[in-house]
């Protein structure tokens, strides 16, 4: 197989701010904390950073607390001298910021790119809950709101409840099966000191929780937090000098196939994850069976189920049976999933928390939740028409 641009880069440093509920800190404050930690972790200084990348860009946020600071604000605050920068939302999911950084390194526009994602949705919501930060107008989510708002489809939980309902109808998936995802990742979160929720979650707790948008209940929804995650993407030849170790990028899946819609995609049970996953496997000689850990986007539990199927970890429609009971996706199972608690228990860091945990696992630094011998991790971001996926490998050279 020919060499791909992904192989020209490594993730040389990671950093994360304090993560919590209603911290009352500015997005820029949290971003600076995470960025400085990532730069130091990479063994670099601010003077070494010549690229900057983020999702969705500070001026493209549709809801309060969602966008984070713009690259201009971060560049100015950190006094960076940049050869390249970008911030955009119309990319292959949240991982688009990482894809862009690797592209910039590969073509020689930058050598060390600082990539960050910041949310302050918990503080923005305050006591008003999610409804307090929803867009007021109908022109949201590629026009979805135009047709769905009049019928009460005001947010992603409503749109993805349709996906879950279709999956249940078509394949016989049950709530009892879906429960295994939030219950298992809560067990993982109990081993993560930074997780927002770490107390045990039982099957009875899940089935007795209030319904948010049938069939999705409270525990099927991720928990809004304030926090920032950052990483440094460096030229591959820097890997031996990265003091904390690095993670190699084997392949990206960035394809957008089918209608870019929350409710008009041809196969409502799979969404855009289908195209991105197919593209990923076309760019590597590795196969689904080579994956040691899956860090799958779980803004809602049904999304993680859809990603399992799209990536070929199980057959189409078999996701419910695959996760049932939780044994397969536990830390000691055949495919440990969302090992730091994901977004359902670790906190909604909008996919970048999953990316951070992937690198931690590949370095062997996850402590009590470390998966022994982890060499290959798949990281998937996005839901509905938004999808991007990366395959990371340990750097043992």
How does this model look, in words?
With 397 residues, this protein is of the alpha/beta class. It is 30% helix and 16% strand. It has 14 helices and eleven strands. The chain has helices spanning 27-41, 71-78, 96-106, 121-125, 144-148, 156-171, 175-178, 180-189, 203-208, 273-282, 301-310, 319-323, 342-345, 352-363; strands at residues 9-16, 51-54, 84-87, 112-120, 211-213, 216-217, 226-235, 247-253, 293-296, 376-381, 388-394. Mean pLDDT is 93; it is low at 136-142.
The low-confidence runs, each spanning 5 or more residues with pLDDT under 50, are 136-142
For the secondary structure, the number of strands is 11
- Please indicate the percent range of residues in DSSP E strands (runs of 2 or more): 15-25%
Profile the largest sheet.
9 strands, mixed
User: Count of helices?
Assistant: 14
Overall outline: globular
Q: Write out the strand line-up for the largest beta sheet, numbering strands in chain order.
A: 3-2-4-7-1-8-11-10-9
Rounded mean pLDDT score: 93
**Gyration radius from CA atoms, angstroms:** 19 Å
Indicate the structural class: alpha/beta
Distance between the ends: 21 Å
SSE ordering: EHEHEHEHHHHHHEEEEHEHHHHEE
Helix content: 25-40%
